[in-house]
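re: that chain from earlier
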Amino acid sequence: MDYAHLKGEQLLQIKTLGQLKAAGYSPKSIKEELRENLIQKIKTKENVFEGVWGYEDTVIPDIERAILSRHNINLLGLRGQAKTRIARMMTLLLDEYVPVLSGSELNEDPLLPLTSFGKNLIEEKGDQCPITWLPRSERYAEKLATPDVSVADLIGDVDPIKAATLKLNYNDERVIHYGLVPRSHRCIFVINELPDLQARIQVALFNILQEGDIQIRGFKLRLPLDIQFIFTANPEDYTNRGSIVTPLKDRIESQIITHYPKSIAIGKKITAQEAGLEGKPVAHIHVPELMKDLIEQIAIEARHSEFVDEKSGVSARLTISAYENLISAAERRMYRNNESTTVLRISDLIGVIPAITGKVELVYEGEQEGAGLVAYNLIGKAIRSQFVHYFPSPEQKKKEKSGNPYVIPLAWFGEGNELDLLSDLSDKAYKSGLHSVPGLEEVVTQLVEFLPENEREFYMEFALHGLAEYSQLSKKLLDTGLQFKDLFSSMFEMSEDEEEDFDEEEDDS
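^ sequence. v structure.
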């Protein structure tokens, strides 16, 4: 029997230590196990971190090098950068099953027992010692570092109830109740937000990482624990709440820096994969590709906004939640109008404001502005940034003496006309309103290179929003939607507060 070639059901048929020895089993450390399985996957070009987008040339090669080096790993990056997801996916590099002494608290290898329990069991039963099999799914433990985490939680403590029940004195190793770390022997153990762990608790990890010693209330135990440690940390924590003590940082061999998506295309892949759209009538809601770009652009604008705390970061969860809200806005409108299909609208972006306000950490100036207004302005900046990918700059065209494609629709608004685009307008009323603006359809048909017929009105509305963001039109947020009108006539109607807000927007532009 060749142990190396035994799989699944064949392994589970081995029930005793003698059978395990006969199969040719030999102990292997978890780091060696990860390394060997990774080598096989690299050779076959199999992607271990399926669904983790944007890290193919940066983070994932660093992780693979760390595993090949048998390193403990610290994933350092802002929130929402898939750090915990990556750690959990590393279980896919573990063997399908590993043998464990039956009844062992610490997943002891039958050929390398750690505790007096394991050693006594083997001495008593020999080759008839029973074994069980631990699947890879159970070889993962995770702990969120919080201020209330104690040494007892992680390492262990003396259990007086166990001592009294078993009638043991406190010199006996059996009175120890082991913590999460020893119980993660032969497992991947993750500590999330490591800097939040109190310094004295971090100190307790020194010897475990380096020598494998643990000390519990006077017991000095030599437990050569076999653990793959993965830590996650946010650089903001180093200054705001805590830090990683230097000797511990020195013992973590590889620190890998994560990052946000480097392009809108990657961001769209992540959002599409993670958005929870189960049960929604997505087949009946058409989503223009530009709308997906706008959602990702909002996150980009937030990461560079003067009102948002850059050190805190803007999680990918913003775009995911925003996209879910966007679909729900169209779904709600479809139900209210008893329509079977609909196309997303630019004005539906108002529905994503609640998804933005809870995902950005504002600086003092942002708090003064208010979370809702900051979110609304981020949407406007996203529209402004994407507008010039489809239409010429209104500012540039305004300077030219001829050839300005926006003249006719702007003149119509200049005559005192207004357009209200309410959130719950039926598709028929929505289209009718947009087509009532002279020259607007021509702007779109002449300038948008690839224009699907069902997206015509979407781009017409996009043109209005773009003109407003470039200060050619006035756009006012109503309780029930948006209102477009001439910029200068609206200035005469402004209150002092509104005029100040307008001046600030002009300065931002």
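The chain has three domains: 30-69+71-94+139-257, 260-387, 394-509.
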